[in-house]
């Protein structure tokens, strides 16, 4: 289901009690599902519900900025409902002919089996109980703070990985290739009332192909659940904001940033104000240069 935990959803998002329908009345915000995947072929559906705003749907790592649209930064990839276009790192391009109320968009992510080095990279990002949660940062395990330039650090790519969209069962083609290494969650962005309903399967209105690049496609409902011991105990917060409760709420922790985005329909995004807020757990003795993933 979609998750209202502060590491997963902007507080402006409204999530229904079933965890599957969601909307937001403000500028673009981001909400992520409780689960994420590292490799394999995975699929979920999104139905466009009646609304007057806009939506962007896709995949995001846990570090994706909650106070902006999916596809705003290097941690997320998205498809915009109208006009039809795709976004990554705030760069958009035309893709398909858009979607309307009642259309069902299928989202497929394919990530081939990871190498040992790639698995070690993901392991180094894991967030352990009691550590600081570091947002919007990435440094490889061999990064040397004394001599390496952080401005030149980029996320490693996973060769032959793909993100593909379907509209009412028809494939719209490969949207993204060689995506950044990471653990990806289904992600929804809503603008000025944009409203959708997600379906993680296993029963889909428009079932996907049985396999993709010789890899069986799995419904996202089979994704492994987050281990309870990896959800941190609540700590006093500098600033507390109300969240729409899900049927299975998570303990409060993590980070959020507070800013307001307004997106014009030509795809441009303007940041009107910015104030980053970090909610800190007690730190253990571990290098602060490695970004943490909530697994």
TrEMBL record:
Keyword set includes Repeat: no
Keywords: Nucleus
Keyword Transmembrane helix part of the UniProt annotation: no
Xref: CDD domains: SPRY_Ash2
Residue stretches in coiled coil: none
Region listing for Disordered, in residue ranges: 243-295
Subcellular location: Nucleus
Chief location: nucleus
All residue ranges annotated as the B30.2/SPRY domain in the record: 1-160
Xref: Gene3D superfamilies: 2.60.120.920
Pfam families xref list: SPRY
SMART domains: SPRY
Composition skew (Polar residues), residue ranges: 253-271, 281-295
Protein family: Belongs to the cclA family.
Protein known as: Transcription factor, contains a PHD finger motif
Gene (name only): ASH2_2
């Amino acid at each position: 289901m979609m998750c209202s935990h502060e590491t997963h959803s902007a507080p402006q998002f409204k999530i229904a009690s079933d965890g599957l329908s969601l909307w937001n009345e403000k500028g673009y915000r981001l909400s992520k599902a409780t689960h994420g995947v590292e490799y394999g072929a995975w699929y979920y559906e999104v139905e466009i519900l009646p609304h007057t705003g806009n939506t962007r749907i896709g995949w995001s790592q846990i570090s994706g900025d909650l106070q902006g649209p999916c596809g705003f930064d290097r941690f997320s990839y998205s498809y915009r409902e109208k006009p039809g276009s795709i976004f990554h790192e705030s760069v958009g391009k035309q893709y398909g002919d858009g979607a309307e109320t009642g259309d069902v968009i299928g989202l497929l992510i394919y990530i081939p089996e990871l190498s040992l080095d790639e698995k070690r990279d993901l392991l180094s990002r894991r967030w352990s109980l009691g550590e600081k949660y570091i947002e919007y940062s990435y440094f490889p395990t061999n990064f040397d703070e004394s001599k390496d330039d952080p401005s030149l650090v980029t996320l490693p790519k996973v060769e032959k990985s793909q993100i593909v969209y379907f509209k009412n069962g028809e494939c719209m083609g490969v949207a993204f290739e060689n995506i950044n290494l990471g653990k990806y969650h289904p992600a929804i962005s809503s603008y000025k009332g944009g409203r959708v309903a997600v379906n993680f399967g296993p029963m889909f209105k428009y079932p996907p192909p049985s396999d993709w690049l010789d890899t069986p496609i799995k419904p996202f409902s089979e994704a492994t659940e987050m281990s309870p011991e990896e959800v941190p105990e609540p700590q006093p917060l500098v600033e507390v904001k109300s969240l729409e409760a899900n049927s299975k709420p998570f303990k409060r922790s993590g980070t959020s940033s507070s800013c307001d985005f307004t997106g014009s329909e030509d795809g441009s995004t303007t940041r009107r104000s910015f104030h980053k807020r970090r909610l800190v757990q007690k730190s253990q003795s571990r290098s602060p240069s490695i970004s943490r993933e909530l697994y």
